[in-house]
Design goal:
- About 40% of the residues lie in helices and about 15% in strands.
- The longest helix is centred in the first third of the chain and has 23 residues.
- It is of the alpha/beta class.
- Helix 8 crosses helix 14.
- It is built from 18 helices and 15 strands.
Length: about 475
């Protein structure tokens, strides 16, 4: 890469860097593929991937996060907080970008959030005589409108700032062709599409890796203080301590095997925010549970333990138990955990957990299906969690919205749904005859593997991001 004399880039995220995978991958590519020194300015909280921590050219600078207790303040103080919070963040950002890090050739900033990030980065780029590039993940004003409403004055001001300072950038990247069209036609901003792609550590897991992962997360699967369900019934302390047996696998000598009557493992990653309606998944789980019981003519008077005992003794059924593992952190997590406790399901169970950056890809690579509940606030972005799932060879059922077909190809690598009933239908269809007789699920998995063989982040970044960054640094934007 032709670069300025500084040979340095700064990646700016007004958020938890451990929960900003795309910006982590930018930093890795800048260091590995462009041979630049990279400073990351972001909040701490969750650990980033070890590849960042171990790279000698990547330097992480963590800012102190704004306290998350605004919701406890009286409503009359909320407008004051809406003004005070970005002012404090602006001062902190400017301090880090102008004094705490060395002057870079280019700032690459994640949007959203737009306020005060774009303002601070523009000022810093002017003061330090650097260029700056915006990576448009979504539109910030549409996210703010989810909580304040589209007619709010704060949303109008936010929109103006996002548009005004967005136009001042030396270059722009975005995540979809739909967003590229919107930026150019409505905002007057020319952007290069850089599709999210999984890095090399997102791949299908080997059977030995699956077994070792399930051993590590046994305690999360079987919590001693939780009531029994179709997953935990019959589990003893000996089972928890036994390194040769898990819910899904067992080890015999040096060989690893999948258990025949294992549950189907379904993973959904969520930020527990209003733009993901988790209630759809809960309703679909209830429908699956009831429809299977009706199809198998099960007698309700026998109780749940009659089924659980049969499964514990090794019996298999036409439709399997489903275990939903929900990963992520966010504001609505506790609310939905309370709802899950009240479901009283016979053959469906839920577990919520937070995994390390190294174990999360292994979980995806060990699962049977991914579920995505993301509905874009702008209708123009794509869920990166689906990209990660595809990288691990995992087919996906995703909520349908305007541009999701840029990522999910129906009946090739996944399915789409618009209601809980549609999702329940898809679960019934995909898992009938599990684990050996579900041809539809196998077809989707093969489709994911075929499509994912050539799609990796490094290739996408080399072809689309690197040329733009080179031009911006050299000043050749003709």
């Amino acid at each position: 890469m032709e670069s300025g004399k500084r040979r340095r880039a700064a990646v700016v995220v007004l958020g938890d860097i451990g929960r900003s995978p795309r910006m982590q991958y930018h930093a890795l590519s800048l260091a590995r593929q462009a041979n630049l020194e990279v400073d990351i300015v972001a909040y701490g909280g969750s650990d980033p991937h070890s590849a960042l921590l171990e790279h000698s050219s990547i330097h992480i600078h963590t800012m102190r996060q704004w306290p998350s207790r605004d919701g406890f303040l009286p409503k009359m103080f909320r407008p004051v907080m809406l003004l005070l919070k970005p002012l404090v963040q602006f001062i902190m950002l400017l301090w880090f970008l102008c004094f705490k890090i060395k002057a870079p050739d280019v700032f690459i900033v994640q949007n959203p959030p737009s306020v005060p990030t774009l303002v601070a980065v523009k000022w810093a780029s002017w003061l330090r005589q650097s260029s700056f590039i915006i990576d448009w993940h979504n539109f910030g004003y549409t996210l703010l409108a989810l909580s304040l409403g589209r007619s709010s004055r704060f949303v109008a001001i936010y929109h103006w700032v996002e548009l005004h300072f967005g136009k001042m950038a030396n270059g722009s990247l975005c995540v979809t062709k739909a967003m590229q069209h919107e930026l150019e036609q409505v905002w007057g901003i020319k952007a290069t599409v850089l599709y999210d792609q999984p890095p090399e550590f997102f791949r299908p897991a080997l059977l030995e890796e699956k077994h070792k992962l399930f051993c590590r997360i046994k305690k999360d699967m079987f919590r001693s203080n939780s009531p029994p369900d179709c997953i935990s019934y019959g589990i003893t302390d000996h089972d928890l301590q036994d390194p040769k047996t898990t819910l899904f696998t067992n080890q015999i000598d040096n060989d690893y095997h999948l258990t025949q009557n294992r549950p189907a493992l379904i993973v959904s990653s969520t930020s527990w925010t209003p733009d993901e309606d988790f209630g759809i998944l809960l309703e679909a789980a209830v429908m699956y549970d009831r429809r299977v019981a009706a199809l198998l003519n099960e007698n309700d008077s026998n109780g749940d333990e009659f089924l659980w005992k049969a499964v514990d003794e090794g019996k298999t059924f036409l439709y399997p138990r489903l275990l939903f593992v929900i990963t992520g952190k966010g504001p609505e997590k506790e609310k939905y955990e309370e709802k899950i406790k009240k479901l009283n399901l016979k053959r469906v169970a839920f577990r919520t957990m937070w995994l390390s950056p190294e174990d999360y890809p292994l979980l995806l690579g060990s699962a049977d299906l991914g579920v995505c509940l993301h509905t874009s606030s702008s209708g123009l972005d794509l869920p990166m969690k689906v990209v990660d799932m595809f990288g691990c060879g995992l087919p996906v059922c995703a909520v349908s919205y305007s541009c999701i077909t840029e990522l999910v190809e129906v009946e090739k690598n996944g399915l789409l749904f618009s209601s809980s009933s549609e999702l329940a239908d898809e679960l019934m269809m995909l898992f009938k005859g599990f684990p050996d007789g579900c041809d539809a699920l196998r077809t989707l998995k093969n489709g994911v593997l075929e499509m994912g063989s050539s799609a990796k982040w490094a290739t996408e970044w080399e072809a689309n991001a690197k040329p733009l960054i080179s031009k911006v640094i050299s000043g050749d934007l003709s």
